[in-house]
Design goal:
14 strands; TIM Barrel; homotetramer; alpha/beta; four-stranded antiparallel sheet; eight-stranded parallel beta barrel; 2 domains; Alpha-Beta Plaits
């Protein structure tokens, strides 16, 4: 951390800042310049609050050099997550998680699950708890949905992914193979900490206006609890463009690889908001180097209880999987 | 709602859409055109899912005419919230809520509270539960903080505002006069519903990338539970500008007045991220017609355990209050 | 176009609106409803000004159904641009345009041009006129640069792409094979019209905060002048993320294909702002279905007079081209 | 400028960077650290290209400490602009520029000009050259419009503001008192330089997605040509919110005052896109400390040839001016 300090400051004025530094047991050096001085801090800076230091009148600027997400950026950590024998990560096969937005009933989930499995999905995704913008919209089957999900999981022998929206439901998620934290809950730190303790893989979606740093800090919350099984999931950020719902931020795919070992997957369904864009974006995601995809599939989109417009039908999914495999091979990777 | 439909569609194909419409007991008219047809739906449309209708191949566009936040937009509702005799709303005196970002200890809160009360703040604001981007930052005194807050509230005879971040803490908030839902929790619907049931005034901050419609839908969640004491609070939206933390969206002040009777207040401290900008923005907020301000004040910003840089000192607060009063009078309103 | 009109409006009040409609010789129908009426306009709506119609007190909303970029959306038009025998478009081979950001001198351009040609670039791109944020930065070699570009073009027998920034330089661009309109000039309509008249292919970059509609309207300006040789180029839009310069909006690749026959290419260099991200984004661009790439290549990036950080070196370019070919084949396309 | 450098770099590798530094005749110091080294540069840094320096493999980060807009940030410069005796600036009376979006004919301009003068506008604003998103929209009366503007200016003895969109029209603007550079041309550097040479006051609008730094760099282009009569004008930035056209960035009002002596005015008409929001935003602009307003006024908005919806009628303008005066007095300023 570099603290840029006005010239002509005397030692007395500096004292409270130096005291602050000393409480954190840091190495520091004071570097005089002609236009400004620099106080350089090295060591464990996670406890140092930039906003506090900026509050001193004589501080012109505070510059962080190392990221605050220490555990997330630890490249010595293993680079894959093992879910019931399926590895997700940098040097592993690309995985696809597919299924309906919402669990509507046993038949629907079994039918769609059977198809996505048949066409190559590694995981069945389906929501029981649905955070919806309108209180009048279908909010998910809740506990009953989780029961259906478990039944279909066992019948299809297919691991499942589902979103949790509240601490109160934690016990129900013990048999869910990957627990999803949705974009709206990315900074619901109570939920992050509680879910972390289940010690299961967590799929952490990026908030739709969260910076990469904020996202990785949320991952840090989970890892700090002792659970390093975090799968990052980009799902699009808000933009000014009215023709798409969200803008998928592809740069994060190579960026995350540079900053961390954590696997990164992408959700093209929510981002585009339209089934016609899903295939094109999915192939791009694979070419960009992501470790997986999470895709909404529904066989009767106009009967779907949520997100019909962005779901693709099973035959389109089959065709997408065929093409995805070819693109994966083109960049030297396999599909699960 | 208008559904734009491709020409040359036959009745059979339309049937599933018409069936969908019939289940919701709506008035409808089918209007033939030369380039496209229109299906117009009137009645209670809150249950109609645009994304489901958009999934039909022959649907070109779905256009909502009336907003989905029915209760929020009800202009027959009373236009103020009564908190212990202090009225907040359109035709009432402008209220200021002030205090430190975090409760640090009894002395600090008492000291700052005494000062902001002296200079005219109607409410003491102070956080016990702090959602922080970094797991290494100070997270608030939690229950202990709430106890301190209650003690200071009684000693100063000053109503208090504090943020809740989890359902699990609900019981502790029974003596908090206005319960704040922070920007990160604006779409934490479980929390909204649970807090609504306390039947106390709720200060609902706008998410930093939430549309006005999403914000009002979150207010609708609360009112739908039978609690119409919602105070909307704009706190800045994310922008591309690196010199400010957030961009205060002033347009929402007159917009909210057009769309709803709910009071609208503004938080210039979080938006600007810098104490030097707070006064200028605060005066503008009042001139724009907002019903109140929520401002961070700290007497020792460089000792603050959070958000030091954006807190103003009590003497600046005093001066701001003087000017605010003059601006309020200029537009024909009083300050509490 | 649909004009939503308040109920209980009488015919007299409507008259000025109906007169306005009549001046444009449109078909119209007035559709009564219970909550609002609709005035539907069909025909050539390009002359109808939404903002004028919205100014009537009784107009609640104006909704455009068909886009205003009539010529751009004409799908009967040919779907490729022919540049000296190289076809750019939907069903053609993918083209790569590569070269240095700025022309620095003859040797530099010849050297880099020779290499990018060797590794498969179809076009040499290089700037003579450089719009720079700072007046103190290198602004390009201007006329001298264009002369060098022509010389290298002839020696390498390689068509060239270069940016024009002012009407005054138009005569110098007669031998430039594709004339680039930069993002900052996307809405410099005088320039668009003047360049259109040269009747040469135009590479039209999207403004960094322009909507797809605004972008296509700028293309419409060019086509309206009788020149339909427009190549659209996405180069990233502004976002709140500080770790990347711009966010490439991949959704526009399939979107543009839906809305128009015009070729769409992508510039991953400006978008990412960092050479390490260029390869990953380039492969994604191809997989998403774009018709080409424009990439900055420099053999001595730290000697470059502009944009060093985002240029890749020739050996990285060679490796990128190898991989790009494989991805192109995977989706059933060839590289030029 | 601080250049953060990887440890374990040897002197040979550093040489090209040090050479680069030497060519610019800068003071520098090399500061060893434990985790990274720092190369500090002081002196005239305007010629140093960050992107070039960032291209060295061993450079981790380049941090600018002082802004590049040297002339703009010179606080010794006078702090007002004198237009025919009317002073615009920090300690001067607040000025209002008002009038129709477009000049439509002599009668319209005379009529509206007479009214806005009567109600207190200091300047008449009206456009002859209109950059329009659609090639089918009214593009302004051009030269004829400028002639009408001059005639009305003389008859009303009222200085005028009008937008220039092309170098080719420069001669026509010699009698325009303040020449406006529109948001779309903020980075049309050729135009900036050409207009600067007329040595007349220039109203420089902020691009709708331009950072404050980019905006001030555009002002620097003008001042570098020897013309320091630049009036900055905020007109709203693009946001994700569909209910408003642009979001006025109020933070820039106090920010610009901190960074520069240049006057700052605000355009609430374009920002809001709706006449109903104009008054509220205008009062806020004054309270925030801006030096002026530019407002669209039209007596027959539904006959306006452009921007009808965002124009206010003269009676609303009169009422706005009354209130504006009161708010100005409340913050201790006068209105012209």
């Amino acid at each position: 951390m570099l603290i840029i300090i006005k010239k002509e400051i005397n030692e007395n004025e500096l004292q409270p800042l130096l005291n602050e530094v000393k409480t954190h047991d840091l190495k520091y050096a004071y570097l005089n310049g002609e236009e400004y001085d620099i106080l350089r801090l090295e060591g464990n800076l996670t406890k140092v609050d930039e906003k506090k230091i900026s509050a001193f009148d004589f501080v012109l600027q505070v510059i962080k050099i190392s990221p605050s997400y220490q555990k997330v950026s630890n490249k010595d950590e293993q680079s894959f997550i093992n879910v019931n024998g399926i590895k997700i990560g940098r040097n592993e096969s690309i995985v696809v998680m597919a299924g309906p937005c919402s669990i509507e009933n046993y038949d629907q989930l079994k039918r769609i699950g059977t198809q996505v499995k048949h066409f190559g999905a590694a995981f069945l995704r389906a929501g029981a708890y649905k955070p919806r913008t309108s209180p009048y919209s279908f909010q998910g089957l809740k506990s009953e949905g989780i029961s259906i999900l478990k039944r279909v999981k066992e019948e299809l022998k297919m691991p499942v992914v589902s979103e949790i929206t509240s601490i109160l439901a934690i016990d129900e998620f013990k048999d869910v193979d990957i627990i999803q934290i949705g974009a709206r809950n990315m900074q619901n730190y109570k939920l992050l900490k509680a879910v972390a303790k289940l010690n299961k893989p967590i799929l952490l979606k990026r908030g739709f206006a969260s910076t990469v740093e904020e996202w990785l800090m949320s991952a840090e919350y989970i890892i700090k609890e002792g659970n390093n099984q975090v799968i990052l999931c980009e799902r699009g950020v808000r933009s000014f463009e009215p023709l798409t719902r969200f803008s998928l931020d592809f740069s994060v795919i190579p960026l995350i690889k540079k900053l961390s070992n954590l696997p990164i997957i992408v959700d093209p369904s929510h981002a585009s908001g339209h089934f016609e864009l899903v295939e094109s974006l999915s192939l791009a995601v694979i070419a960009a180097g992501a470790d997986g995809l999470i895709i909404e599939v529904h066989d009767k989109p106009f009967e779907a209880l949520s997100d019909g417009i962005q779901s693709i039908k099973p035959d389109r999914f089959a065709s997408l999987m065929e093409k995805a495999k070819k693109v994966a091979h083109a960049i030297g990777r396999d599909m699960f």
